Amino acid sequence: MLEFKLLLLLMVTNGTPIIAHKLFGCRLEAPLDAGMQCFDGRPLFGSSKTIRGLFLAIVVTTLCAPLFGFSWGIGLIIGSTAMMGDLLSSFTKRRLGFAPSSMVLGLDQIPESLLPLLACMIPLRLSWQSIAIVVVVFFASELLCSVVLYRLRIRQRPY
Predict the structure, then answer these.
(1) Residue 16, exposed/middle/buried by CB under 10 A (0-12, 13-18, 19+)?
(2) Which H, E and C letters describe 22-37, residue by residue?
(3) Is the pLDDT of residue 144 over 90?
(4) Domain regions of the chain by residue span
(5) Which residues pair with 43 in a beta bridge?
(6) In Å, how far from its chain's centre is CA 139?
(7) pTM value surpassing 0.70
(8) Which of 38, 40, 146, 155 is the most exposed place for a label (fewest CB within 10 A)?
(9) C-alpha atoms less than 13 angstroms from C-alpha of 87 in its C-beta half-sphere
(10) CA–CA separation, 148 and 159 (whole Å)
């Protein structure tokens, strides 16, 4: 049951920027990296990583955590570290030459689910088995949900 609640909270974190984009369009959608380029001449994170998306993902996850039986503090940790994982993925994809919003199987799903679980391992007494289960199920559900969100015209690409 704990694993299922964590999975749902991770999905809230991951889905919030997508829903925010659908609701608000380009309003308040400033790129997190402010257009900065890295040493390789490519964007630091890319245009799809916005201040609004980062902020709302962390706030919404923090506020939703009690609905799943977690403290606000755990929600803050999960939201923050999931977004750190997402930013790490974007940074890595830019270094590898992938365009913003492109999908790299595994790199787009694993860091944003694994980092929060590792950060909450001790306070939530998570086993390595529980972490592995949540990461694998998140990986699969992320791909499935992406297709559903695309068909509902919430997401721009079906990945």
Answers:
(1) buried
(2) HHHCCCCCCECCCCCE
(3) no
(4) 2-151
(5) 37
(6) 11
(7) yes
(8) 40
(9) 17
(10) 10
Give the mean model confidence (pLDDT) for residues 67-95. 97
Q: What is the DSSP letter of 66?
A: G
Percent pLDDT > 90 in the chain is 72
Structure tokens at 10: 């991770």
Q: Indicate the burial class of 106 (C-beta count within 10 angstroms; 0-12, 13-18, 19 or more).
A: exposed
Annotate 67-132 with DSSP letters as a single string.
Answer: GGT--HHHHHHHHHHHHHHHHHHHHHHHHTTPPTT---TTTTTHHHHHHHHHHTTTTTT--HHHHH
Contact of 32 with 50, CB cutoff 8 Å:
yes
Query: What's the CA gap between 62 and 93, in Å, rounded?
Result: 27
| Contacts of 145 by beta carbon, 8 Å cutoff, 6+ apart | 11, 15
